[in-house]
Structure formats: structure tokens, C-alpha cells
Amino acid sequence: MTAAATAATDSYSFLGEEFLTWLWFRLETRGGDFDLGEGRAVGVSFDDYLQLAPGDGDGTFQTLRDGKPSRSAEAAAGLRNGRRVQEAKLIVAMGELQWSLILDATTMTLRSIKLPDDDPEASGPEDKNRDRAANFVLLHEIVEGVYHEFLRVRLEEGYLEGEAEAQATWMTSR
Amino acid sequence: MFRRSGSTVAYYVDGKLPNPHDDAFGAKLADQRFRSIETAASEETSIGWVTSGDPTGDTFELEDMDIDAGIWLRIRFDKKALPTVWLKIHRAVAERSAGRPLSARERKELKEDLSEKLLPRTLPTVQFVDVLYLPKQQRILLFGTSKRIREEFEKLFFKTFAVSVVAATPYTLAQHSGLGREALAYLDQVSPVPWPREGGVADRQMLADEDDGLEGDHEEEFDAEPSEPAPGATVTDARASETAATPEEASRPDEDADLEAIEIDLPEPTEHDA
To answer: Rounded to two decimals, what is the model's pTM?
Structure first.
């Protein structure tokens, strides 16, 4: 990758932050259910860790832990001040499976992932290895699927006058 | 056993790798396999491929690597270093018997002498990092997120296969997410949304004003200048803060600037795996 390409890629960290902020808006206004196609219906919710970044990229960060940070007055104040979600602990569920993870939106890195419980029918280490590896892959596909849903909205014509306007109202009125 | 928790970075493979079921795949791994530094007499680091079934790097059996979802590889990082506590002990002994602090040259000689004696008896520290290669998707999950691990993985992968990997980021994920041509073209022009701040009825108006200027052309949004705030509005948005809304505000100290000058050293987020 050239230096220019790397710089261009790095500069899109804002898109990841907009994704997590949109996800919060989406969850509160339309719920956290997503149909990702191919029979994949997933649920997403925010858990007990949030990091908000200043809107202009030059200010203090706000870290909220434990309890329900997304329902806290501090988080609401952050949104009202144009802050964006930079990191969040998410719970992701699909059928019987449930994952938790921290999504670093600036790099789309998945941290502190906890996989679903092992399949009780897995008969030995090899079965468990297959199951766990498949669940890591599936989690990435789900996160990327939800990100794709965001991109469809974010990159469509009329985004600013539609979804962004609704999100702005939500951010300033929480 | 494959881990049940951890942190991952996704990569795209930017080229063609040998089929993991072919001997060529194992042969390339073997060329860059881990090599032991257990008996080395100098401070050094060794980095190379191993498998979960053979942590020495001597063999690369497909049955140790193929776990249906992908090919499970491991990078082994060994590092041998002179234990600093032993260096301090020996220096204290030498200074006590000399009755004075050691000179720089004497300290260097002491370190060389100790390295020769101690390093062959010192075991390296060992770290394993899992790598899951997904041939069908041409993707890789690296189970380590530190800068050092990522850089070493990228170097080792290129040395092994002469193929680069590109980290998944908000941008590269968007490029690979199957968006239409129009959306992809817009991706290269998209800029951050200037979200309104508290008291920002006018700021929301600003957002709308920006949109008004679009007239359905994404390119215009990219080039659009922020609109003027409504008269009398309290404007705190970064892109509009240069414009004082009222004479009173123009003469007031910039409270936002003062607030933002205070740097808070935040602790690293704790692992939530406990």
C-alpha cells in the first residue's frame, strides 16, 4: 500500500465512528434487529462500555463503563454535544448463539470477543476447534453485514436530508 | 484448543496463495518456520510459523491446520534477553568490591561477560499468535491487535507467500462490501457529517442547508462550504465556530476552546472477558 493510500484509508476512521453512532440511533429508534439475508436474522445491543470521541477530533474523550452507559445522562450530553461513538461493547445474537465484543470503530477491530458457549453436542477437541473458529468467522460476517446496512444508508443519495436529519434530531433531543 | 475469546484484526489477501491442500502451501510455511533460539548465546528474537499440533515448527501437517472454517496457523515469537535483575545484581557486587561506581566501559564489559555466561542458560519468552486463513473469502483473521504483532505478521506473511495483506478498515471494508458502483464512487468523496451540538436548532438547520445545496449530487456535498448560521443562534459546531453569532458571544472568551484544552489522560479500557 502506498503512503497516500494508507493515509486515505486512515482518514476514514470517521466512517467507523459514524457507523457506531448510527447503530445507537438505529437501536433506539427502530430496534436492534437486522435481517442480513441468507436466513441471518441478528440482534445487536449496546452493553456496558462506551467511548465517545469529540466531534471535531480535537478535544476530550468520554469513557463510560458499567451499568447501561447508552442510557446515561452523560452519554446523552455527549450526543447533544456532537460526540461520536468511537468504541462500544456490543452484544450480538443470532438464534441460540450470543457473542460479546468491543468494536473499535476507527479501525473496525474486534476486541475482547467472547464466543457463544460450546455446542454441547461437540464430541471432542476437534469439533470444538471447528465450532469456535466458525463462530469467530461468523461474528466478523455479522458485524460486516450490519456495517454494510449502515453504508447502504450512508452512501445513498439524500442521506443528509433524511436519515442524518433524523439522527441529528435524536442526538440533540435525548 | 482453539481459543474461546480474544481480539482480532481482519485482513484481505492481496494476491493468490497456493491451495492449502497442496504441498506447496506447507513448503512455503516450512521455509519461514519458527527456528529455536533456546541455546543462543546472544540477545535475539525468532519469529516463524508453527501449527497448533507442532509448536516447534518442524512439521506442517494439513490435519493440524484444516479446521473446516479455515486454515489454522500460528506464529511463534521467542525473545531471549539478558534478565536485567541479574545485570543489576552483578553490577552492585562489582561496584561494592571496587568501592566505586563502574565506568561506562566497565559496565559494557560486565554486560558482555554476563551475556556470555547467562544467555545460554536463559530460556526465551514464548508467545503464540493464532492466524485463521479463509481461502474461499481470501481473508485472514489475526488474533492479535498490537502494532508490533500486526507489523510482524504482515512482514512474515509477505516473506512466506510474496503476497501482501491489507487490513480491514472502515474504508477497505466498504470497498469489499458489495456496494453498487455509484455508492463506491461516492465513498471516495464522502466527508464527516458535522453533527449539531447542544442548543443547535440552527446547527440542524445548517445540516439541512448543506443538504439543500446537494440537489442530488454527492460531489457537491463534498465540496460544499458550511452554511452561515441563523442570526442569533448559539453556534458551537467546529465547522461554524469561527463565526460569532451575536456581539455578546463575539466578546466572550471561547469557552469551548478552554474546555478542549484540558487533556484528560484516560485509562485503557479493561478487558471485559473476565
So the answer is: 0.78
